[in-house]
Amino acid sequence: MLFNSGIFFLFFGIFFCLYWMLRQRLHWQNTLILAGSYLFYGWWDERFLILIALSTACDFICGLGAAGPRYQKQHLQKAAGLLLGVTLIATLSSFSTSWIYLTGILVLIPAGYLLFRALDKLSGPQRRKAYLMTSIILNLGLLGIFKYFGFFTESFIDAFATLGLAINEPLIQIILPVGISFYTFQTLSYTIDIYRKDMQPTERLIDFAAYVAFFPQLVAGPIERARNLLPQFEKQREWDADKVTSGALLFTWGLFKKIVIADNIAPIANAAFASPADTEPVLMLIGIIAFAFQIYCDFSGYSDMARGLARMIGFDLMLNFNLPYLSRTPSEFWRRWHISLSSWLRDYLYVPLGGNRNGKLLTYRNLFLTMLLGGLWHGAAWTFIVWGAFHGIILAVYRFFSIDTWLARYQGLSARAVGINLVAWLVMTVLTLIGWTFFRAETLGDAFSAMAVASTAFGSGAVFSELDRLPEAAELLFYLWPLLLVQTIQAMSGRLEFLPDLIKPASRGSISLRQFAGLNALLFLVCSIFFLSADGGQQFIYFDF
């Protein structure tokens, strides 16, 4: 079920009405969120629900165990009930293919019971660590099997093929569940934070399950830490018309970025990357730029829609993008791009590896490994691994030369400061485009071909002589100018949510010039969505990750 589909609008309209009818009954509100989230997620494939229920049940128990005190028998019964109930629903929906999962769960539940009983007999510190390791092994194990099994198997076969040894491909074809990387990181952070004593576990399974499966951000983030989002499930949410309005406006802006900008410029990028070696240099350059904006509008558009939907039902999700293409250095870029992932990698990978505490050489290693694994998180392909390694290298290089510290000296609007910051921004923009080339290309060979071809556009001078005559350039600019205008306003004003600020009346009974401009901007967005949206309701790029 896509945010940009008619069935979702019907689903959310019904959900929204029922949800606020239950505003005085917190438990039933959370139950409705859980049921709605499972319906939303199971719309793709009901079998996916079994995995998310398994992860939820396991981490619910592991969180209690990682806290120290022994859990109660009723906790195991609740977790087993959730897992069995979801599996039964999936089996009844598609018995011909799901009965094997029901059989597996019927075996897994008593096995899990015996495992947790054994862990509970350990001493305090050992028990806490054992529950933490159980959570890590299960979650990363599921992620590894469903996301990386095919990649490593194929790489293994290719490696032996280079030695002249032929190995048959396995008969098993594993489907990648939508959003598994996102909810896996959420449940992992829950158990880790409890083990670190940064939060206390919940004993209410409904609340925890609703947090894990929360449909606005389930399949593409933001990756919300339990200590930030879970407490919002435990307190009463009150109707707030201003929040509903601002949430709807944020959703509208995100929808515009997705279906008007991202989906319309996608064909430009697709055409360029279809056969990079045979693409004209200027068209290749335009295609790379088009993809940079496509992935930004696609992903940040989803994040805006997720935050808007959540706000409409009384939840606050973290900001996931903060004008990343204005960055001057790699570290600044990662403080602005996919903030929930970069901060997760920092807190749960970079810092445990040692961070910057053990000397420069190990700091560079930690930066490189963190970004390398961050690239692998995005997908099971060498292009993603090289993309992550590339960002790890430039992070280390910028740190080695202390470029961030040096740039901090040049503030203000003096000619020297403006010139230095402009050059730094241009260099970072080129590096970002190089990274996106690896990210988008189907193979490493295609990525190198794309960069080689695009670079000749400058060498031949074609970029200046042909750019104004290419319909692709005009089309790209046609769809991008509203974004560029809005981002300029956002950067100058420091307000990322410009529509609510513009539309909110300054006083009762009067319409200011600012509000008039805001209402016209909203009208422009709505008309664009109706008349300029791309056909087909394309899936979000990050659903594949």
Describe the structure.
It is globular, with a radius of gyration of 25 Å. The chain is built from 22 helices and no strands. It is an all-alpha fold and 545 residues long. The model has no long low-confidence stretch (mean pLDDT 86). The two termini are 16 Å apart. It has 3 domains: 6-237, no CATH class; 240-321 and 470-545, no CATH class; 327-460, no CATH class.
Number of domains: 3
Low-confidence stretches: none
- Termini separation comes to 16 Å
Shape: globular
- Give, in order, the helices and strands: HHHHHHHHHHHHHHHHHHHHHH
Beta-strand content bin: under 5%
The portion of residues assigned to helices is over 70%
User: What is the count of β-strands?
Assistant: 0
Q: Which whole number gives the mean pLDDT?
A: 86
Main sheet attributes: strand count, strand direction, barrel closure: none
Described by its quaternary structure, the protein is single chain
The computed structural class is mainly alpha
Query: Which value, in Å, is the CA radius of gyration?
Result: 25 Å
Number of contiguous helices? 22
